[in-house]
Amino acid sequence: MDAACLVCREISGDVEVPGGALHSSRHSLLVHIPPLNGGDVFLGHLLVVPRRHVADFAGLDDIEAAEVGVSIQLGSRALKEAGAANVYVATIGHAADHLHVHLLPRWPETPREVAWHSVDEWPGARRATFDEAAAFAARLVIESVE
């Protein structure tokens, strides 16, 4: 764990995430992104992170990669079941050097001309406070199919 890393601090519980862990495995965690600096957050914006501080997919071992993949699938399925028309999966690795995979829902009311990477920015985007995001997260159904 890197005490200066925001993602590590979310994993350790030093930074609260709405609704807590949505799915937790030995090597990965699925959470709803928290609003930062007291603002709001795009409703349904989930993050999948490896528990170990690693910069990118290349740094994962096979077991970590498999668990991250399962968490992506579980989060995507839960968002679709919650009404998302589409779920975009992206990792950028620019702001934090701890791998974090974004799951961005495209809600049905999002205009077609809004690009995938802007679904959270258009004026009608579903925005939420911490408590609203926590309530949404609590309603998500995260079930593994094995």
Q: Would you kindly provide a brief summary of this structure?
A:
By secondary structure, this protein is α+β, with helices and mostly antiparallel strands.
Can you describe what's shown?
With 146 residues, the protein is an alpha+beta fold. The chain is 25% helix and 18% strand. It has helices at residues 6-12, 62-81, 130-139, and strands spanning 23-24, 28-32, 41-42, 46-50, 86-90, 101-106, 127-128. The strands form 2 sheets. The chain has a 5-stranded antiparallel beta sheet with strand order 1-2-4-6-5. A hairpin with a 3-residue loop joins strand 1 and strand 2.
Question: What is the fold's blueprint, element by element?
Answer:
Blueprint: H1 6-12, E1 23-24, E2 28-32, E3 41-42, E4 46-50, H2 62-81, E5 86-90, E6 101-106, E7 127-128, H3 130-139
Antiparallel strand pairs: 1-2, 2-4, 3-7, 4-6, 5-6
